[in-house]
Amino acid sequence: MLDAKIPAGKLDEKWTKYKGTVKLVNPANKRKLEIIVVGTGLAGSSAAASLGEMGYKVKAFCFQDSPRRAHSIAAQGGINAAKNYQNDGDSVYRLFYDTIKGGDYRAREGNVHRLAEVSTSIIDQCVAQGVPFAREYGGLLSNRSFGGTQVQRTFYAAGQTGQQLLIGAYQALERQVALGTVEMHARHEMVELVIIDGKARGIIARNLVTGELERHFAHAVLLCTGGYGNVFYLSTNAMGSNVTAAWKAHKQGAFFANPCFTQIHPTCIPVSGDHQSKLTLMSESLRNDGRIWVPAKQGDNRPANEIPEEERDYYLERRYPAFGNLVPRDVASRAAKERCDAGFGVGSSKQAVYLDYAAAIQRYGKAEVSKKNLGNVSAEVITNLGKEVVKEKYGNLFAMYEKITGENPYEVPMRIYPAVHYTMGGLWVDYELKTTIDGLYALGEANFSEHGANRLGASALMQGLADGYFVIPYTLGNYLADDIRTTSIPTDHPAFVAAEQKASDRINKLMSIKGKQTVESFHKRLGKIIWDKCGMARNAEGLKQAIEEVRALKAEFWSDVRIPGEINAMNPELDKAGRVADFIELGELMCLDALERNESCGGHFREEYQTPDGEALRDDEGYMYVAAWEHQENSWNLHKEPLNYEVVKPSQRSYK
Amino acid sequence: MQHYSMNLKLKIWRQKNINDQGHFEEYDVNNISSEMSFLEMIDVLNERLISEGSDSIAFDHDCREGICGMCSMVINGQPHGPWKGTTTCQLHMRAFKDGDQITIEPFRANAFPVVKDLMVSRTAFDRIIQAGGYISVNTGNAVDGNTLPIDKDMADESFAAAACIGCGACVAACKNASAMLFVSAKVSHLALLPQGAPERKQRVVSMIAQMDKEGFGSCTNTYACEAECPKEISVLNIARLNREYLNANLSGQ
Question: What ipTM was estimated for this complex?
């Protein structure tokens, strides 16, 4: 039986009690303990910096050329915190409740409450680091709303919140590099985990510039390697985002939890053609002011501006009057798909809906006229003033839209469509963020723990920084306190030799195939299978087919892939081949997990299980558990961690 | 928006590694859609090269959303290509027309050695940040975020400087390969905020010293950096950097 090790006691006292009684490591011993951090996004940078500050010897790894480039940097909208600065009824409990409900009752109460508790400290820490959050004229921090909530608790820095938070964490990390507590290895990729006597004791990393395999020892290994959205080929993830480190850990015994819980974000720029290499998100914050609609008539080909108000269907406002355009992501995405599938889609592909700012521009314009006491002014003046306000709030997003599509969103509504954005599933971890391998931890998007079956907007940044700044510094000590007598294990230990050999054999095997098809072409085909059959809507028959197709693709990949270049040199195609090979294996597990879960919840929508009005139909009797998969040779074993709701009473999620 | 297809002649810098001398190679690419991004056009070429049994062209890229700062390239003489305020990854092929010749080179600077083909090493920037581009505050030391009100205009100006993505286009654009715009953006970001005040003198002196040590050139105020910066970071930051540096030196740092 999987034990999440949630501390006993009242929900709001668990974390305080844990912190007060957890084992500590004294400063002299910290200096002797080595920690590896893989990945330098918000979770990895904040963990590496904080652990370095505490005095541990840290080695950090990232595949990019600098730790500052990790994909947390692309997060746009904001970060939630239960500060209640707006006096609108927010509290730790409400943030906890919104997150549990938003996750469709598939997350742990204990973890989520802790996340809500530490959320406020994150904002304080970031402000102290010099993160330039948006401010009001009075000089205090500004907030905005996000989907799935009715309070304003999102802190932001224009549409570049992730960038500013990551730069804050990166600077803290570089400060530790300068002080010598953190050793940074950029352009390195973890290709194998080293386990000695059942404990994670290091990694094999490939130097991506020289192709050399390197051995690195540590008393504990932290995987902060992000999500696996690129299994879909097209996603809003960065090109290099991958599951490889997590997958290597999984194959060595770390359980993988809820892999089918993936988030399809409702507002992305639609696909323009077969050449498409990735998708670009338009922040959820745009749904604060933008209105989403499609023509009321099927196949209406008129330009958006020529369709009169009464012939438009603001379908989110119609279906969900209480939350309107700010329903959670899974709900908004499904509603867009429903309209497009029914023939109401717009644009040349008909796989898009409108996100319209005309009303917001008028509203803001009139407010400016009143604020500036301009009296009677022309419609044009109102429109221009409104555009200026919108530009200040969302300027960078509008500019990005125009660069990609060539259309001016101040004049015509944006076309948007859902796209893969985030993965709630990930390595199974307990309350201490420890995986099922002793000494191996997973932080941020790489773990599965806080978002259940659907993540609310502005919560990923919160979780990444919570794990790195405020959770792991306590929980890791609890493990290392018992490890102070372990001296550094030399890397000529047989376990290191064997792990390096395994990594090297795999690389040699990949290079020796010398087939006909490119890595990219396999990745595209994998993405299409998973998107079509394990995407926004799934059904048993499709999933069974997908499993067969993925298995066939795997066999084809290992017999016909072509990788140019050399092993002992920089070789981006070889890097990509290793990642795609792992994505293929994960793809099969995702479909298996989706097939096994005979219910709909959050982002997992099984067509067989829906309410008469098309909402997700959960089965709490049968499926209120975390599905944690154990890897075996050619198959998986399912372990179930039951979810106990002691405080919140699960009900059908309603945003109407 | 009218979409069209084009045939192009590409002249691309190929260099095996840091020790190789490097050379230009020419490639014809056909049926490129105006809707593609510039990097997608190179993806198409790479797919062809791999199918033909050649080595693909190495280039840095990751987010493809203009924010990670990983992509580089000098396109027809301009870092990040012809569009103002745009990274290479966000440049789209409608910037070009049928029959165009496009020359693609890596960022050129002594402090940015070529790793392979169009990839360069920009670790010098990380070392400049290590020299002082931070506020020394350990996790857990912070007071409530609203304890310290900050003038909105100051916060906005600080944010505008902090928007730098550290791509190095400023260095590539400068005839002296100066890193002043990058350094000044970081110094400004932190100097404009009250949190950054305690370390501001030490910070500017250390960062400038590291910048010089890395081998970046001097600033002669041509403003090519601002013109090519994909985030349109203002050269006013350089003026602020000079003031900060002077103040720090006058007070004996």
Answer: 0.98
